[in-house]
């Protein structure tokens, strides 16, 4: 079998270069390994070939072969063009060359916690060099950080380094505040590399330690896990007092809960998974909100007039437009109005879910020379949002997942039928040798327990992958059901 597939590999490589194809026609065995490696590397760099390696990280099989293939086939920093960054001072494009003599720049791509070393920041150096014990500038936090030690990681072993240069990957120790996606650079030559964007969590569960003595231990462990993984969020529900953890799917949260037990020794009780719905505003309205309080002495006063409506296309969060003229609202109070609306968006009027996006156009108002302050205008915005949002139509948004199922031909009908019951939109069914690949978009609320259901439908032979796609408006009957459920819990 190995000989058959090696011959297919030789044939595939020969098709990439004319002189090798001639050699293959004469004698396939005359093609040397060095010639094959050269063609595979060139084709990989041209993106006409994608090498695939077999192995298992769990069993440590094929890992060394994979590392060798990375060296042989993938581009070194010298094989690609200079990386582009942005100068934060003037927004001009900066080209970063993989030259140790250039100004230092690096990207922090992972934060990890080591039981012996502490917090580790994995970073990739794009230009210049960094010595252990020196300072770097973090353009995200706008603060200097001292990197006390630099290490080269070999699985769970560390090799101390005195200096690290362009093209290298290392781990820093001794920093105070570095997060995933931050750019580290020379303070005199600042640059921002392409930042990483992380999707918002789509599934939440309540979690509590099994014993009272583990409360502090769990809080500390959850904080470390959230620092490592930007798609994992932890919050305290102020109404119920519960700790809520949120992630990108059931499997994501299962792995994190398992890590709590294995790495931090915290046994937990968990609640049922809950979908992270959002709300959106569909209509527009104008509203005036006067906030007035007089309790003796100095009072509270704020008067705002605004238009509330849907955000413009592709705008996320709050789109705030200040059109106040003539100083009717002093400039120092405008940020407080904005802050009030941003805070109010965390609890929509339909069922208390966060509002995905909205546009507020503040166009008039008034103030009192003595009684008006920043808090008064913030409160006016919060109350005004609730009142205005109840005047317009709102809708519930549900997370839609992109699902791919690989199944033997025999089970195609049962699996597509099951997906249809789950409100799936089938996009594509592709035939492979002996298998069918089904691609669909399915609401997350319908996918709880799907791995077990799929195993049952296919006698354990089908596999599935799932990732977040987008938020879309939920059907009316689903929205009504969710709102009733939420209101039932509250009451």
Features:
491 residues, eight-stranded antiparallel β-sheet, 28% helix, 11 helices, single chain, 26 strands, five-stranded antiparallel β-sheet, alpha+beta
Helix content, binned percent = 25-40%
Strand content: 25-35%
SS-based class: alpha+beta
Low-confidence segments, given as residue ranges, are: none
Total number of helical segments?
11
Main sheet makeup: 8 strands, antiparallel
In angstroms, what is the radius of gyration?
A: 28 Å
Shape: globular
Task: Report the strand count.
Answer: 26
- The CA-CA distance between the termini, in Å, is 66 Å
Explained architecture:
With 491 residues, the chain is α+β, with helices and mostly antiparallel strands. Helices cover 28% and strands 33% of the residues. The protein has helices spanning 2-14, 18-26, 33-45, 63-73, 215-228, 250-264, 334-344, 374-391, 412-421, 450-457, 476-490; strands spanning 83-86, 93-96, 105-114, 118-127, 129-131, 135-138, 143-146, 149-154, 157-161, 163-165, 169-173, 183-185, 203-209, 233-236, 243-247, 268-270, 274-275, 278-281, 285-293, 300-309, 317-322, 357-366, 394-408, 425-432, 435-443, 463-473. It is globular. The protein starts with a helix and ends with a helix. The model has no long low-confidence stretch (mean pLDDT 88).
